[in-house]
Amino acid sequence: MANQPWLKGKWNEYKGKAKEQWGDLTNDDLDKIEGRRDQLVGAIQQRYGRQREEAEKELSSWEKRHGLR
Between these two residues, 66 and 6, which has the higher pLDDT value? Predict the structure, then answer.
């Protein structure tokens, strides 16, 4: 599952929600992610200086809020 598009077909819908949550992510970052969960985790780590585990928890919480898990 690591590199599969977890939001394939819905990424454009959720990109805006991701941008609201993580405003430091650029539109270019979000375009490159293309709905791949591992790419989003990596971008959160890079932009916010988070450890992988912390970024994973943050993303899991976001997924739950948006009914993705």
Answer: 66
